[in-house]
């Protein structure tokens, strides 16, 4: 038989709500971990007194009773799992797992039995319903009647708030059955009554949530916050965790108390109680107990008279009464040396503390995220500026938290911390060997940080080598691809034509424009060869000869399959690394053989390039002749349009037109006709560019 049994999606009934989680049964006892809060309930095998199997709304359920009267209920089992659980209880706990069905007759009278912290309403020997007395918030009595009021359940849409029991009178003298019923309920109910004196009182403490200054009265079973407007009574059983966090300014301290269920004020729920202390505040504290009582109750953790910093005294007293460890920041240190990171969550700025087993953000609103509930984290670019980045966390339940406006200098420290904690990073994807090894019932301390860093370093080296190889092998193409003056050349040429054309507008402007084109023309002339290069690269001929491989690449192509067969399952990264080692260890004679092959390949390439260049020059001449022919046709069409405009203007001249404008049109028409005659005589002159004709027209107007 297996030593452990594990069940997922099991529901534990706590104060009227069903909390899902995981259940593990082992030789040592029963462990249940709440998926929402991370709280772990541990029942020792020696404490188990009874086990009951019964049919419930969510399939089948298991009820465990302990020797000290506590009751634990777990629902969500399948009927087929009874035999397995029954055998396990017999073998490891020496208990019979009894089967008891609930009574469904529908009667509303029966017998009330009090067993431990449970009120059971029975008909005959079968229970109809059970009420955990810890759910009771108030108990009132009337004539032959007892009323039970319950704590409101925030997680449920509908909550049972009140139950009334009719208690018939009895003939026994001196015993009031109503009062006896009420006393049995109140002895186990979660009714907070401030009876007796407080152990100690801390006056006027600054509280961030709920906001204000409160007197904190420490009682044996609960904490009393007394403010000017509100009072809160917090049972120690509702305290989940305690945190002591140093402020970034190193002059203040946060003391955070995590609560489940939270304290309420109207519709507002406070899951965290946050106190702010100054490190300079000191206090002398005297407990309202004699030394024997202090020693007996706290076993040396507290003394009757204590003195020190205020935050130390509060945290020390709370740790002793709640009996929980205080969580402090781990070994994380930010860029400035602080143990926290300044950031913003939602609309407020605060501090994010990376802890050993989670993250906590203070203070508005406070957020605590455990590592075992994180699905992945993500480093995102800042939305407003590049001087900061965002840190995103998504939980396994799909909830997303975004901490924004983190300084860019904190990136390296936070990234290393996340790697060390084996959290999945969305930007890089899930790496092999990086699966989280958290125990489902407790956080794991195993660390795979070194292996992951080595893998990342290897990939970084390979990327650098590939970048160097591509830059060395590309030769002149790398220079051709970078032309910072390309756009400037285009602008300069456009400026030249515009400047020459606008020189006819006035004498003063023509003097300045005559100087500028001269300078620009010189720049364009120098950069013309560079401008033609990208055109040749953009239209790269697929028929051009390929560059020859180096000796190493020739050897690698020939040896790749052999390396794979010698090392089955080797990755591409490791294969490249192994090939480099083999090439380095190869003898000089063998390398010379591959050098000769590389030299032969280089000669063949040069020979092929010469033939390709000759063929390319012939193609270039044919394309030039074709281009000139097209330009002649375009020029001829333009001259015909000019002649038509001249004839129309001479027949009907426009009224009010100035003489200078007429002379300009007349001269430009002559120049166009003269250019046409010259074009017929010489083919080269006929291919003149349009800017040249505009210069002639400008000089004619002068």
Automatic annotation (TrEMBL):
<dbReference type="Pfam" id="PF21103">
    <property type="entry name" value="PH1_SSRP1-like"/>
</dbReference>
<dbReference type="InterPro" id="IPR013719">
    <property type="entry name" value="RTT106/SPT16-like_middle_dom"/>
</dbReference>
<feature type="compositionally biased region" description="Basic residues">
    <location>
        <begin position="621"/>
        <end position="630"/>
    </location>
</feature>
<keyword id="KW-0694">RNA-binding</keyword>
<dbReference type="GO" id="GO:0006281">
    <property type="term" value="P:DNA repair"/>
</dbReference>
<keyword id="KW-0238">DNA-binding</keyword>
<dbReference type="InterPro" id="IPR036910">
    <property type="entry name" value="HMG_box_dom_sf"/>
</dbReference>
<dbReference type="Pfam" id="PF03531">
    <property type="entry name" value="SSrecog"/>
</dbReference>
<feature type="domain" description="HMG box">
    <location>
        <begin position="545"/>
        <end position="613"/>
    </location>
</feature>
<feature type="DNA-binding region" description="HMG box">
    <location>
        <begin position="545"/>
        <end position="613"/>
    </location>
</feature>
<dbReference type="GO" id="GO:0035101">
    <property type="term" value="C:FACT complex"/>
</dbReference>
<dbReference type="InterPro" id="IPR048993">
    <property type="entry name" value="SSRP1-like_PH1"/>
</dbReference>
<keyword id="KW-0227">DNA damage</keyword>
<keyword id="KW-0804">Transcription</keyword>
<dbReference type="Pfam" id="PF17292">
    <property type="entry name" value="POB3_N"/>
</dbReference>
<dbReference type="InterPro" id="IPR011993">
    <property type="entry name" value="PH-like_dom_sf"/>
</dbReference>
<comment type="function">
    <text>Component of the FACT complex, a general chromatin factor that acts to reorganize nucleosomes. The FACT complex is involved in multiple processes that require DNA as a template such as mRNA elongation, DNA replication and DNA repair. During transcription elongation the FACT complex acts as a histone chaperone that both destabilizes and restores nucleosomal structure.</text>
</comment>
<dbReference type="GO" id="GO:0003677">
    <property type="term" value="F:DNA binding"/>
</dbReference>
<dbReference type="GO" id="GO:1902275">
    <property type="term" value="P:regulation of chromatin organization"/>
</dbReference>
<dbReference type="InterPro" id="IPR038167">
    <property type="entry name" value="SSRP1_sf"/>
</dbReference>
<keyword id="KW-0158">Chromosome</keyword>
<dbReference type="Pfam" id="PF21092">
    <property type="entry name" value="SSRP1_C"/>
</dbReference>
<feature type="compositionally biased region" description="Basic and acidic residues">
    <location>
        <begin position="532"/>
        <end position="544"/>
    </location>
</feature>
<feature type="compositionally biased region" description="Low complexity">
    <location>
        <begin position="644"/>
        <end position="660"/>
    </location>
</feature>
<feature type="region of interest" description="Disordered">
    <location>
        <begin position="609"/>
        <end position="702"/>
    </location>
</feature>
<keyword id="KW-0539">Nucleus</keyword>
<dbReference type="GO" id="GO:0031491">
    <property type="term" value="F:nucleosome binding"/>
</dbReference>
<keyword id="KW-0234">DNA repair</keyword>
<dbReference type="Pfam" id="PF00505">
    <property type="entry name" value="HMG_box"/>
</dbReference>
<keyword id="KW-0805">Transcription regulation</keyword>
<dbReference type="InterPro" id="IPR048985">
    <property type="entry name" value="SSRP1_C"/>
</dbReference>
<dbReference type="Pfam" id="PF08512">
    <property type="entry name" value="Rttp106-like_middle"/>
</dbReference>
<keyword id="KW-0235">DNA replication</keyword>
<dbReference type="InterPro" id="IPR035417">
    <property type="entry name" value="SSRP1/POB3_N"/>
</dbReference>
<feature type="compositionally biased region" description="Basic and acidic residues">
    <location>
        <begin position="609"/>
        <end position="620"/>
    </location>
</feature>
<protein>
    <recommendedName>
        <fullName>FACT complex subunit SSRP1</fullName>
    </recommendedName>
</protein>
<comment type="similarity">
    <text>Belongs to the SSRP1 family.</text>
</comment>
<feature type="compositionally biased region" description="Basic residues">
    <location>
        <begin position="517"/>
        <end position="531"/>
    </location>
</feature>
<dbReference type="GO" id="GO:0003723">
    <property type="term" value="F:RNA binding"/>
</dbReference>
<feature type="compositionally biased region" description="Basic and acidic residues">
    <location>
        <begin position="631"/>
        <end position="642"/>
    </location>
</feature>
<dbReference type="InterPro" id="IPR050454">
    <property type="entry name" value="RTT106/SSRP1_HistChap/FACT"/>
</dbReference>
<feature type="compositionally biased region" description="Low complexity">
    <location>
        <begin position="687"/>
        <end position="702"/>
    </location>
</feature>
């Amino acid at each position: 038989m297996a030593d452990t049994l594990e069940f997922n999606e099991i529901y534990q009934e706590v104060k009227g709500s069903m909390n899902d989680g995981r259940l593990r049964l082992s030789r040592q006892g029963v462990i249940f971990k709440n998926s929402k809060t991370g709280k772990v309930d541990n029942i020792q095998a020696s404490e188990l007194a009874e086990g009951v199997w019964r049919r419930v709304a969510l399939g089948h359920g298991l009820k465990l009773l302990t020797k000290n009267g506590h009751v634990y209920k777990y629902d969500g089992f399948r009927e087929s799992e009874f035999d397995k659980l029954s055998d396990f209880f017999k073998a490891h706990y020496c208990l019979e797992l009894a089967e008891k069905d609930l009574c469904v007759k529908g009667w509303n009278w029966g017998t009330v039995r009090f067993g431990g912290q449970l009120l059971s309403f029975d008909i005959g020997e079968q229970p109809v319903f059970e009420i955990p007395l810890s759910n009771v918030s108030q108990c009132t009595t009337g004539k032959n009647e007892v009323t039970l009021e319950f704590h409101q359940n925030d997680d449920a849409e509908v909550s049972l708030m009140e139950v009334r029991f009719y208690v018939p009178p009895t003939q026994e003298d001196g015993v009031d059955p109503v009062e006896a019923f009420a006393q049995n309920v109140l002895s186990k109910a979660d009714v907070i009554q401030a009876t007796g004196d407080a152990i100690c009182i801390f006056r006027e403490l600054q509280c961030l949530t709920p906001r204000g200054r409160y007197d904190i009265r420490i009682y044996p079973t609960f904490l009393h916050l007394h403010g000017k407007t509100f009072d809160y009574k917090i049972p120690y059983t509702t305290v989940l965790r305690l945190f002591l966090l140093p402020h970034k300014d190193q002059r203040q301290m946060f003391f955070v108390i995590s609560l489940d269920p939270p304290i309420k004020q109207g519709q507002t729920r406070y899951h965290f109680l946050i106190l702010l202390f100054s490190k300079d505040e000191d206090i002398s504290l005297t407990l309202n107990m004699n030394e024997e009582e202090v020693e007996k109750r706290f076993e040396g953790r507290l003394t009757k008279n204590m003195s020190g910093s205020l935050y130390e005294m509060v945290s020390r007293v709370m740790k002793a009464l709640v009996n929980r460890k205080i969580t402090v920041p781990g070994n994380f240190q930010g860029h400035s040396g602080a143990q926290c990171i300044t950031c913003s969550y939602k609309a407020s700025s605060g501090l994010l503390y990376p802890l050993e087993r989670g993250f906590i953000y203070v203070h508005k609103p406070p957020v605590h995220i455990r590592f075992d509930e994180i699905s992945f984290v993500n480093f995102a670019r800042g939305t407003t500026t590049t001087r900061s980045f965002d840190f995103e966390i998504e939980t396994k339940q799909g909830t997303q938290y975004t901490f924004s406006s983190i300084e860019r200098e904190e990136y390296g420290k936070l990234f290393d911390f996340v790697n060390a904690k084996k959290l999945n990073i969305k930007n890089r994807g899930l790496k092999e060997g990086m699966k989280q090894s958290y125990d489902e019932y407790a956080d794991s301390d195993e660390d795979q940080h070194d292996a992951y860093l080595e893998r990342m370093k290897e990939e970084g080296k390979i990327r650098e080598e590939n970048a160097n190889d591509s830059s060395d092998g590309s030769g002149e193409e790398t220079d051709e691809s970078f032309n910072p003056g390309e756009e400037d050349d285009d602008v300069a040429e456009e400026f030249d034509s515009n400047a020459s054309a606008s020189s006819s507008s006035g004498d003063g402007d023509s003097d300045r424009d005559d100087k500028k084109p001269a300078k620009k023309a010189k720049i364009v002339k120098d950069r013309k060869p560079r401008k033609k290069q990208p055109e040749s690269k953009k239209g790269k001929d697929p028929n051009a000869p390929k560059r020859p491989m180096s000796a190493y690449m020739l050897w690698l192509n020939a040896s790749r399959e052999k390396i794979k067969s010698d090392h089955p399952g080797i990755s591409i990264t490791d294969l490249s690394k192994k090939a480099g080692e083999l090439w380095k260890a190869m003898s000089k004679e063998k390398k010379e053989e591959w050098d000769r092959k590389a030299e032969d390949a280089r000669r063949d390439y040069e020979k092929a390039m010469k033939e390709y260049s000759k063929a390319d020059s012939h193609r270039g001449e044919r394309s030039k002749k074709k281009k000139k022919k097209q330009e002649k046709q375009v020029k001829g069409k333009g001259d015909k349009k000019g002649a038509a405009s001249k004839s129309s203007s001479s027949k009907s001249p426009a009224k009010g037109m100035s003489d200078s404008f007429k002379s300009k049109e007349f001269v430009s028409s002559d120049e166009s006709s003269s250019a046409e005659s010259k074009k017929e005589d010489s083919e080269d002159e006929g291919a003149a560019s349009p800017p040249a004709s505009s210069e002639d027209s400008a000089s004619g107007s002068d």
